[in-house]
Amino acid sequence: xxxxxxxxxxxxxxxxxxxxxxxxxxxxxxxxxxxxxxxxxxxxxxxxxxxxxxxxxxxxxxxxxxxxxxxxxxxxxxxxxxxxxxxxxxxxxxxxxxxxxxxxxxxxxxxxxxxxxxxxxxxxxxxxxxxxxxxxxxxxxxxxxxxxxxxxxxxxxxxxxxxxxxxxxxxxxxxxxxxxxxxxxxxxxxxxxxxxxxxxxxxxxxxxxxxxxxxxxxxxxxxxxxxxxxxxxxxxxxxxxxxxxxxxxxxxxxxxxxxxxxxxxxxxxxxxxxxxxxxxxxxxxxxxxxxxxxxxxxxxxxxxxxxxxxxxxxxxxxxxxxxxxxxxxxxxxxxxxxxxxxxxxxxxxxxxxxxxxxxxxxxxxxxxxxxxxxxxxxxxxxxxxxxx
Length: 388
Description:
There is one protein chain. The chain is 42% helix and 16% strand. The protein is α/β, with parallel strands linked by helices. Helix 1 links the parallel strand 1 (13-18) and strand 2. It contains 15 helices and 14 strands. It folds into two domains: 13-173 and 352-383, 3-Layer(aba) Sandwich (Rossmann fold); 184-348, Rossmann fold (3-Layer(aba) Sandwich), CATH 3.40.50.
């Protein structure tokens, strides 16, 4: 990654805080840590020990302090608050940047002297008691953070509605994938895909929000196509067993691959990429697929429409018929697939890069530390588009 252009004179210390993560948030924090360190900042990552094991923050030059923040609020949050206070006191940080509402809550409860920035990566979709608790957390975080950053416009609007005094749009750039390590034919051979068969790929955490049940139900209808497409889903998570059972019961041509580190290879072998989520901000796999020139079918939810524009086939969430129809139309029309792939790469070229994201955040940190109080001077320009 090229070295970002950081604001002259800012070489402070930032603590990047995250909760349990096995996917996009962890990748994003690692990308930020690498870029900020390369630009001259000092970075301390605070989070569960498992995130350090998976993402190796210290390997890109950051420090690491274990702060165990589970995925859901528990009484153990009190221990996380104390652990964060100790880490921040030892490091004497200038800015605390929490990623996600769980990390944001711990940061706000820790009450550091440094200004708090919270990036909202996800919307609250749960109902019942869990949803009520999560909405309370949203309000506490929105009002307790100095700056709320939304990964999509709807998240910015949500933060404002809940009382954020400074909310801004801060798109999350997907880390650049390495070049494929295998040729297309080798990737397809792994899954027994014949040259005339379509390979459909989806990548993401196996979680109810991703609605892989919709993709499985649509895929079950494709068994009668000649030739039938092969569908692979890469990812791990709590929905694995229910999805495996659903795949078996529907006799769907779907393989759950588990966690994979060769997404670039999977895309090299793919004819089509599919995202069926109930909500996404700027889903990393959608970005990866379009950058790789793989035509994309995705749900028109959250920040996906503003991300893809007219360069993907958008369908309603939870609609098996719509997914089925969109995939069939593209499989039956090679020219339409080629056009969508071309528009996808053109659209992807307009997105902020990792270096852009790092430079914008460094500018925000400089703004927040410009005054002795850690607050920006009145009337100072915001480095991001959004609401103030």
